[in-house]
């Protein structure tokens, strides 16, 4: 290809690195010749999708020749009743990933800033970089706790969006209601605060800041939720945000007309109302959390208490080597090196038998690595 074309690539893309997702099961099976592989790397729901969602998809298959409802009216009316918010306060996205990009496309001009926690979900920085925006990273505390005073200090007159991920990926830590409300009162009122609540439905802590309550009080927040985690529809790509109608109106201008496919829309409605699947998902998750807490305590490993469906644990060894060794045992986790934490791994809670297999593989591997060292 002629260099003359490449010189027109937008300079802001030169340093952009593509997202590296959790390793798929099929890749590990093929690369390592393993038949039995478990994946605890992408914070997916291990019990599988809701049967009701599967039935809704079956029924919708005969309509695949039609474009999806671009206004997502059926889903919006269900979400509107579920959360008691106006339909004009909702925007549905092709996963919350897309919504993060849509917000940055709407609000970030070259040189504008977003403020994000560190470590946190990488898509915020990615989306801002696409718009030639600058990302200001605010380190979390020693135990990865939020200190919103630090976020306040990071705000400048170029700040357009503050992304708060609560509970946070990859740490599982969360923001307390009183802290978030004070923060919202103290920051300039022309800054949008996006609260990414991808793991909201797993939270057990009483003092967790519910973004929707603060939204209802009139603060400038956009609350993001997803159907990828507790609702177990990661493959279909569907998430949503709740914000003031004026904000939604602008973000809607940059949205593709048919951004969310029909199967995702009907499955989301079914999953939203599948109380049995929701209860089972929460039960299996709490069980998994207890199993891993206990397992790590027995091994003497430091972990961060979590309000999500995953946990961050300090293994004390090189996480890249540990990741590879666990792969060879057919267990996929997330290497903390990706988040700048080179001795930590992030592990999603699985089914009970998967959790046992992971803990056994971890214990054996750590022993082997210590013998070798
Ligand atoms: C904090 C956070 N936000 C958003 C997402 C993306 O969700 P979705 O699948 O809806 O794009 C994830 C996925 O891991 C996440 O951890």
Helical content class: 40-55%
How many whole angstroms does the radius of gyration measure?
Answer: 21 Å
Task: Characterize the main sheet.
Answer: 7 strands, mixed
Please indicate the count of domains.
Answer: 2
Spatially, the strands of the biggest sheet line up as 2-8-7-6-5-3-4
Instruction: Quickly count the helices.
Output: 14
Measured by DSSP, the beta-strand proportion falls in 15-25%
Which word captures the global form?
A: globular
- Work out the number of β strands: 13
CATH homologous superfamily (4th level) name of the largest domain: Type I PLP-dependent aspartate aminotransferase-like (Major domain)
Average pLDDT rating: 96
Topology:
Layout: H1 3-6, H2 25-32, E1 38-39, H3 51-60, H4 73-83, E2 90-93, H5 95-107, E3 113-118, H6 123-130, E4 134-139, H7 148-154, E5 159-165, H8 177-186, E6 192-196, H9 211-216, E7 221-226, E8 239-242, H10 245-253, H11 262-272, H12 275-299, E9 302-304, E10 310-314, H13 319-328, E11 331-332, E12 334-335, E13 344-348, H14 352-372
Parallel strand pairs: 1-11, 3-4, 3-5, 5-6, 6-7
Antiparallel strand pairs: 2-8, 7-8, 9-10, 10-13, 12-13
Helix pairs in contact: 3-11, 4-11, 5-6, 5-10, 12-14
The structure holds pyridoxal-5'-phosphate.
Pyridoxal-5'-phosphate is lined by residues 43, 95-97, 121, 165, 169, 196, 198, 226, 228, 234, 239.
């Amino acid at each position: 290809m002629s260099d003359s074309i490449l010189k027109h690539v937008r300079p802001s893309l030169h340093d952009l690195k593509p997202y590296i997702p959790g390793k798929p099961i099929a890749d590990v099976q093929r690369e390592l010749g393993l038949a039995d592989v478990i994946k605890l790397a992408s914070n997916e729901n291990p019990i599988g999708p809701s049967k009701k969602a599967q039935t809704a998809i079956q029924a919708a298959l005969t309509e695949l020749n039609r474009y999806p409802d671009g206004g997502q009216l059926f889903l919006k009316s269900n979400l509107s009743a579920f959360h008691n918010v106006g339909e004009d306060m909702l925007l549905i996205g092709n996963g919350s990933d897309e919504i993060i990009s849509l917000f940055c496309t709407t609000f970030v001009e070259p040189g504008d800033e977003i403020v994000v926690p560190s470590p946190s979900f990488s898509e915020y920085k990615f989306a801002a970089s696409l718009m030639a925006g600058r990302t200001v990273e605010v380190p979390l505390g020693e135990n990865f706790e939020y200190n919103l005073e630090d976020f306040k200090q990071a705000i400048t007159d170029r700040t357009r969006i503050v992304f708060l991920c609560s509970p946070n990926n990859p740490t599982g830590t969360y923001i307390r209601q009183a802290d978030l409300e004070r923060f919202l009162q103290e920051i300039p009122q022309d800054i949008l605060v996006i609260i990414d609540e991808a793991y909201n439905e797993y939270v057990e802590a009483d003092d967790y800041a519910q973004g929707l309550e603060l939204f209802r009080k009139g603060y400038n927040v956009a609350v993001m939720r997803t159907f990828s985690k507790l609702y177990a529809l990661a493959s279909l790509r569907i998430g949503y945000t709740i914000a003031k109608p004026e904000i939604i109106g602008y973000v809607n201008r940059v949205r593709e007309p048919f951004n969310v496919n029909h199967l995702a829309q009907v499955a989301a409605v079914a999953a939203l109302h599948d109380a049995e699947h929701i209860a089972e998902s929460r039960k299996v998750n709490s069980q998994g959390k207890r199993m891993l807490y206990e397992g790590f305590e027995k091994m003497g490993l430091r972990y961060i208490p979590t309000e999500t469906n995953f946990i961050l644990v300090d293994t004390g060894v090189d996480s890249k080597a540990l990741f590879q060794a666990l792969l060879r045992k057919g267990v996929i986790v997330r290497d903390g090196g990706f988040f700048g934490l080179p001795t930590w791994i992030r592990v999603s809670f699985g089914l009970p038998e998967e959790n046992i297999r992971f803990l056994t593989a971890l214990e054996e591997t750590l022993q082997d690595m210590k013998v070798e060292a």
